[in-house]
């Protein structure tokens, strides 16, 4: 988008008309230069005027040029080449980076413990030079524009002990091949690390960046995380446990008169899945990916926009 020119005869609209704007309530891809020039929308605190369009959310990609850690958040200065803006990223609710010394354990148990430690390792924040993608809401703090991130991800990760740059796109591409070729159907985080370590990649891949890649694949609906005895990831590109869970919900719900003829909407299926312990954190894309594949396999049929009936009840 190009920056809008300021004019004295600009018309600003009341909130009841904001839904007509293509920029309303979406993450707008703006240059940071344009973000820091935004002014409050006249008469409506919390909204900002891009031309005469109301803007709340933005989408930026840039390099971390400054990092500061607080009790509950990381504050990053992000530079996209046109300007610098602060991005506030909340810390993950669970953080553990300790090491358990177990010199007396047998080799096999020591190996399992190491894998377990890797699985619960979380990123300790981005570092200077990391290329990151940030989406979030705008706010003004002490006269300066900030982004309160609802989504953030490393696009390129530089390792301290290596000059090799690991491109996130290349890493996710490698994991996708493992998924499509059936090397990973149900797997733990440790299983994935082992597969990647056994590959012929020249770049060292660590747990933090692999976890980021898994988050990207969850966002696209290629994998989902199931909570059994720990976290198990399911490959949604082929038959999986989630298929059976979705079909079971459809069969139960479509016996009710409310859904018997017109089918059950996918959001209803999503709500029922989130009531279970196993799929409490599942997202919409995972459910839609499974329903699309079940429809292709003739296990369900679509009756209306994103509503489904099981073929055999």
TrEMBL record:
Can you give the residue ranges of the Stn1 C-terminal domain?
198-309
Q: Which UniProt keywords apply?
A: Chromosome, DNA-binding, Nucleus, Telomere
Q: Which residues form the signal peptide?
A: none
- What Gene Ontology molecular function terms does this protein carry? DNA binding
Q: Which SUPFAM superfamilies match?
A: Nucleic acid-binding proteins
Keyword DNA-binding assigned to the entry: answer is: yes
| Keyword presence, Nucleus | yes
- Give the highest taxon in the source lineage: Eukaryota
List the GO cellular component terms: chromosome, telomeric region; nucleus
A Pfam family cross-referenced in the UniProt record is: STN1_2
User: Where does this one sit in the cell?
Assistant: Chromosome, Telomere; Nucleus
Q: What is this protein called?
A: CST complex subunit STN1
The species this protein belongs to is Pomacea canaliculata
């Amino acid at each position: 988008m190009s920056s809008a020119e300021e004019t004295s005869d600009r018309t600003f609209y009341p909130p009841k008309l904001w839904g007509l704007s293509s920029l309303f309530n979406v993450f707008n891809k703006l240059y940071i230069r344009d973000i820091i020039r935004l002014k409050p929308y006249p008469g409506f605190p919390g909204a900002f005027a891009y031309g005469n369009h109301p803007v709340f959310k933005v989408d930026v990609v840039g390099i971390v040029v400054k990092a500061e850690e607080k009790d509950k958040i990381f504050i990053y200065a992000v530079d996209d080449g046109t300007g610098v803006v602060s991005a506030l990223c909340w810390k993950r609710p669970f953080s553990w980076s300790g090491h358990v010394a177990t010199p007396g354990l047998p080799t096999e148990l020591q190996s399992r413990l190491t894998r377990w430690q890797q699985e619960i390792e979380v990123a300790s924040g981005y570092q200077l030079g990391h290329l990151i993608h940030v989406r979030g809401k705008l706010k003004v703090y002490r006269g300066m524009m900030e982004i309160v991130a609802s989504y953030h991800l490393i696009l390129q990760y530089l390792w301290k002990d290596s000059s090799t740059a690991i491109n996130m796109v290349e890493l996710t591409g490698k994991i996708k091949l493992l998924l499509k070729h059936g090397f990973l159907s149900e797997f733990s985080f440790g299983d994935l690390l082992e597969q990647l370590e056994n590959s012929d990649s020249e770049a060292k891949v660590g747990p933090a960046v692999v976890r980021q890649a898994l988050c990207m694949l969850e966002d696209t609906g290629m994998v989902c995380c199931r909570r059994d005895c720990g976290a198990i990831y399911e490959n949604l590109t082929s038959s999986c446990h989630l298929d059976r869970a979705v079909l079971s919900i459809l069969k139960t719900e479509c016996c009710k008169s409310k859904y018997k003829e017109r089918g059950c909407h996918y959001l209803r299926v999503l709500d029922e899945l989130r009531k279970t312990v196993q799929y409490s954190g599942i997202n919409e894309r995972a459910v839609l990916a499974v329903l699309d594949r079940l429809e292709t396999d003739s296990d369900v049929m679509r009756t209306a926009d994103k509503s489904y009936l099981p073929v055999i009840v």
